[in-house]
């Protein structure tokens, strides 16, 4: 997959949800994870993060929104239900991005929303679990920026495509140049 991404939470109060987000981030090969003003009880986080993600990717803990920082050039994407949020299926993911989810029974703080480059929502009838929302966003990023075959027109997976047989020799442009110079191959 091109680029890199990180994912984090603000004000999360359920360490099991944080563990699930970290485990999923690890599975989707996130470059980093973070929390802002979150409950981080390691034994409880590890109860759901069975991959022990913080042994494989950096996890930054920030006490306040003001302390929070991202790598240079990384765009912050808030995942939140707002009137002007972009529907996830219509969103083009930046190559370098960090996604942030709000607390389970709250929204992203106005201070953090103001720092976001984009606010994106998952178009569902009602809110889904925080860890599920994180997984949906990471999956959408993977299928959008990954190198996968286009979806077939018919139902089912891609048909085996017959590869063109490799031709040996000089590239055509080089053959033409040599021919123009009077040096046939």
Structure report:
This is RNA methyltransferase. It comes from Dongia sedimenti. Residues 8-139 form the tRNA/rRNA methyltransferase SpoU type domain. InterPro entries: Alpha/beta_knot_MTases, rRNA_Methyltransferase, SpoU_MeTrfase, tRNA_m1G_MTases_N. This protein has 185 residues and is an alpha/beta fold. The chain has a single domain (4-145), classed as Alpha/beta knot (3-Layer(aba) Sandwich). Helix content is 28%, strand content 18%. The chain has helices at residues 15-27, 42-48, 110-115, 130-145, 172-180, and strands at residues 4-10, 32-36, 59-62, 75-79, 86-87, 96-101, 118-121. Strand 1, helix 1 and strand 2 (32-36) form a beta-alpha-beta unit. The relative contact order is 0.18. The mean pLDDT is 88.
Quick summary of this structure?
This protein has 185 residues and is an alpha/beta fold.
Keywords:
seven-stranded parallel beta sheet, tRNA_m1G_MTases_N, 18% strand, alpha/beta, Alpha/beta knot, 5 helices, 7 strands, 185 residues, elongated
The total tally of domains equals 1
CATH architecture: 3-Layer(aba) Sandwich
Q: What strand order characterises the main sheet?
A: 3-2-1-6-4-7-5
What percent of residues adopt helix (DSSP H or I)?
A: 25-40%
Terminal CA distance? 39 Å
Which class best fits the helix and strand makeup?
A: alpha/beta
Determine Rg (CA atoms, Å): 22 Å
What's the CATH topology label? Alpha/beta knot
Q: Number of DSSP helices? A: 5
The biggest beta sheet reads: 7 strands, parallel
Question: How big a fraction of the residues is strand?
Answer: 15-25%
**In total, how many beta strands?**
7
Q: Helices and strands, in N-to-C order?
A: EHEHEEEEHEHH
Q: So, the CATH homologous superfamily? A: SPOUT methyltransferase, trefoil knot domain
Mean pLDDT: 88
So what's the CATH class? Alpha Beta
Shape: elongated
Uncertain runs are none
